[in-house]
C-alpha cells in the first residue's frame, strides 16, 4: 500500500475538501482527484460522498481511514524509536500553544531547546484549546500546552497537570471603584461583588475562547447579563482596553502584573482552570519531545 496515498485520503478527511486538501499537500486538485478515483476503482467502493459541499467519508471510507491513521502512526512511532537507537538528533516536532501564551512560551523555551537540539525544527500551531484537541486526535501535532476545566478529560488524551490559575477582573485605575482593590492588588486579588459593575460596559473575550464559558458563568452567578462594549479573541487586546482606561475586563491571572493603570480583583466563588500539557494516549515520546515538554512545564510553573 502506498503511504502517500494514505496521506492523501487523510488530508481529504481532515479538510473535507479536495481543493483544500490539495493545497495542504502542495499538489494540484486534479492530481488529488485522480488519486481518489483510482483508489475507489481499485477497491470497488466509494470512500467519500459530497454533503453540503463537504467531502464526508462513507462507511467504507471510515474503515479505510481508521486503518490509514494506524499505519501512518506505526511508521511515525517506528521512525522515532529508530532515530533514538541511532542517536540521531535531526527531525521535526509539532507542538501547539494558545495564541496568547504561544509567543511567550516559544521565546522563553526555544533558545534552550535549540542549544541542545540544533537540528530539530519545530512546527508551531497557535490555536485555541478546542482546535488543539482536534489536532492531537488527528495526529497533526504531538504536544499541546493548553488548559482544562473541572474533571472533564478526553479519554484518548494523556494530561499532565501543571498548576491552577484563576479568572481575574481588571478594572481601570481611574474607575470610581478602583479604591476597593487596596495596595498591591496584583498579589492580593481582593474579592469584588460583580453586581457593583452591573451598569458597566465590558471588554469581553470571544465565545471561541475557553475562558468565555467561565466569564459567562461569573455573570450568571451575579444575576445579570453584561453590557458588552466589544469582543476579542485575544487576551492582550482586552487587557490593553483596561490599561487605556476604556473598560473593565476578565482575563487569566497570569496577566495580573504590577501596573499603575490597572487594579485587580477575584470573584467569590472563584472561577478556576488547570494549565496542562497533553499528548495522545499511548504515543511514544522521543527524548527531544520530552525535553521540550520539560521546558514548557517549567515555563508555565514560573509564569
Describe this entry's structure for a reader.
The mean pLDDT is 88. The protein has 303 residues and is an alpha/beta fold. The longest helix has 27 residues. Strands 3, 4, 5, 6, 9, 10 and 11 form a seven-stranded mixed beta sheet that branches. The protein is elongated, with a radius of gyration of 23 Å. The chain starts with a helix and ends with a helix. The protein has ten helices and eleven strands.
Q: Structural class, please?
A: alpha/beta
CA-CA gap between termini = 48 Å
The parts where pLDDT drops under 50 for at least 5 residues are none
- Tell me the total number of β-strands: 11
- Anisotropy-based shape: elongated
Order of helix and strand elements from N to C terminus: HHHEEHEHEHEEHEHEHEEEH
- Characterize the biggest β-sheet: 7 strands, mixed
Helical proportion, percent range: 40-55%
Gyration radius over CA:
23 Å
Counting DSSP H or I runs of 4 or more residues, the number of helices is 10
Give the percentage of residues in beta strands: 15-25%
Roughly what is the average pLDDT, rounded to an integer?
88
Amino acid at each position: 500500500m502506498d503511504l502517500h496515498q494514505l496521506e492523501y485520503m487523510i488530508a481529504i478527511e481532515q479538510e473535507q475538501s479536495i481543493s483544500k486538501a490539495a493545497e495542504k499537500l502542495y499538489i494540484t486538485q486534479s492530481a488529488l482527484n485522480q488519486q481518489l478515483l483510482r483508489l475507489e476503482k481499485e477497491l470497488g467502493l466509494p470512500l467519500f460522498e459530497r454533503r453540503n459541499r463537504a467531502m464526508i467519508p462513507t462507511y467504507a471510507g471510515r474503515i479505510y481511514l481508521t486503518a490509514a491513521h494506524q499505519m501512518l502512526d506505526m511508521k511515525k512511532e517506528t521512525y522515532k524509536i529508530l532515530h533514538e537507537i541511532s542517536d540521531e538528533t535531526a527531525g521535526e516536532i509539532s507542538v501547539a500553544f494558545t495564541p496568547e501564551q504561544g509567543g511567550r512560551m516559544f521565546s522563553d523555551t526555544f533558545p534552550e531547546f535549540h542549544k541542545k537540539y540544533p537540528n530539530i525544527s519545530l512546527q508551531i500551531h497557535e490555536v485555541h484549546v478546542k482546535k488543539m484537541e482536534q489536532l492531537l486526535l488527528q495526529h497533526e501535532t504531538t504536544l499541546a500546552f493548553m488548559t482544562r476545566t473541572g474533571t472533564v478529560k478526553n479519554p484518548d488524551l494523556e494530561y499532565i497537570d501543571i498548576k491552577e490559575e484563576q479568572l481575574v477582573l481588571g478594572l481601570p485605575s481611574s474607575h470610581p471603584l478602583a479604591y476597593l482593590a487596596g495596595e498591591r492588588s496584583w498579589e492580593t486579588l481582593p474579592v469584588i461583588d460583580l453586581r457593583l459593575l452591573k451598569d458597566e460596559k465590558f471588554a469581553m473575550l470571544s465565545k471561541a475562547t475557553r475562558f468565555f464559558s467561565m466569564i459567562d458563568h461569573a455573570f450568571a452567578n451575579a444575576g445579570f447579563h453584561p453590557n458588552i462594549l466589544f469582543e476579542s479573541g485575544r487576551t492582550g487586546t482586552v487587557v490593553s482596553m483596561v490599561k487605556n482606561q476604556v473598560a473593565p475586563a476578565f482575563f487569566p491571572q497570569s496577566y495580573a502584573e504590577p501596573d499603575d493603570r490597572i487594579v485587580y480583583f477575584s470573584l467569590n466563588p472563584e472561577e478556576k482552570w488547570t494549565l496542562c500539557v497533553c499528548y495522545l494516549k499511548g504515543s511514544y515520546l522521543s527524548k527531544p519531545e520530552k525535553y521540550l515538554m520539560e521546558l514548557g512545564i517549567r515555563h508555565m510553573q514560573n509564569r
